[in-house]
């Protein structure tokens, strides 16, 4: 399968480079900000805490159904989510990335596997691509991590964009999005997500030490019992090695 290229403005995209320290390889986009990471001796694990939390949609689906589901990432980063969904969860996986240098870096430095029947990579503008009718209602896990090279604020962050994201989801699908919980834009971003999904559909983690706050929005709101979430977390941690038991200490319905 060949990479799909969509029309998109790519002028002045930042240069991509990487650094290695203490067994971890980090992706950078023209600055010292870390845009993704990989443990060199375990390349298909998820290294960064906030990226692990982007997998919290697993709390809301039957574990035996995961491999039959469709994950989509908006923003490739260092490929951690893409690799985990494709290699570990055996899911159909689609990623949309604007910068072709990021794709080349992930293939050369971050062990991104070649495309196959379950992995599709689209080079293009996520805002445009997600409006393609082929994707509507087809995505079970939408993972949005679209920061610029300065990591200052999401590059796509308005109510219309989040409404388009909601339209991608299956009835029991979820979106997880990375926001900076200590940034002034956080509350505005959450209000835009709530306007698109409904406030009752939102869950959120407490910020990581670095300030990343992962917000989860459900296409169909639900409030599972604590005991059900605990059982689900135990299965996730045992089966896939994600720290899901810890998640429940810092993850709850969002109060707008």
Structure commentary:
The strands form two sheets. Strands 1-7-6-5-8-9-11-10-12 form a nine-stranded mixed beta sheet, with helices on both faces. Strands 2-3-4 form a three-stranded antiparallel beta sheet, with helices on one face. It contains eight helices and twelve strands. The N and C termini lie far apart (44 Å). With 256 residues, the chain is α/β, with parallel strands linked by helices. The protein has helices at 49-53, 80-88, 100-109, 126-129, 159-168, 186-197, 226-240, 244-247; strands spanning 4-5, 16-21, 24-29, 36-39, 70-74, 92-97, 119-123, 139-144, 169-180, 202-205, 212-218, 251-253.
SSE inventory with pairings:
Elements: E1 4-5, E2 16-21, E3 24-29, E4 36-39, H1 49-53, E5 70-74, H2 80-88, E6 92-97, H3 100-109, E7 119-123, H4 126-129, E8 139-144, H5 159-168, E9 169-180, H6 186-197, E10 202-205, E11 212-218, H7 226-240, H8 244-247, E12 251-253
Helix pairs in contact: 5-6
Which key features would you list for this structure?
256 residues, alpha/beta, nine-stranded mixed β-sheet, three-stranded antiparallel β-sheet, 12 strands, globular
């Amino acid at each position: 399968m060949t990479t799909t290229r969509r029309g998109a403005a790519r002028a002045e995209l930042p240069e991509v480079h990487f650094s290695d320290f203490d067994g971890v390889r980090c992706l950078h986009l023209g600055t010292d900000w870390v845009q993704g990471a990989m443990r060199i001796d375990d390349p298909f694990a998820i290294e960064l805490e906030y990226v692990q939390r982007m997998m919290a949609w697993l709390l809301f689906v039957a574990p035996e159904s995961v491999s039959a589901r469709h994950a989509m990432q908006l923003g490739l980063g260092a490929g951690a989510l893409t690799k985990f969904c494709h290699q570990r969860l055996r899911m159909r996986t689609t990623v949309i990335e604007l910068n072709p240098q990021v794709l080349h870096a992930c293939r050369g430095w971050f062990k991104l596997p070649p495309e196959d029947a379950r992995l599709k990579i689209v080079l293009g503008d996520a805002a445009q691509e997600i409006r393609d009718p082929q994707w509507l209602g087809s995505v079970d896990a939408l993972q949005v991590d679209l920061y610029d090279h300065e990591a200052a604020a999401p590059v796509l962050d308005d109510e219309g964009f989040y409404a388009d994201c909601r339209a991608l989801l299956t009835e029991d699908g979820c979106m997880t999005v990375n926001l900076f919980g200590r940034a002034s834009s956080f509350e505005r971003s959450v209000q835009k997500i709530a306007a698109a999904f409904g406030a009752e559909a939102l869950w959120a983690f407490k910020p990581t030490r670095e300030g990343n706050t992962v917000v989860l929005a459900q296409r169909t709101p639900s409030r599972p019992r604590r005991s059900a979430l605990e059982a689900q977390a135990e299965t996730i941690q045992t089966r896939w090695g994600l720290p899901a038991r810890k998640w429940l200490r810092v993850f709850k319905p969002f109060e707008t």
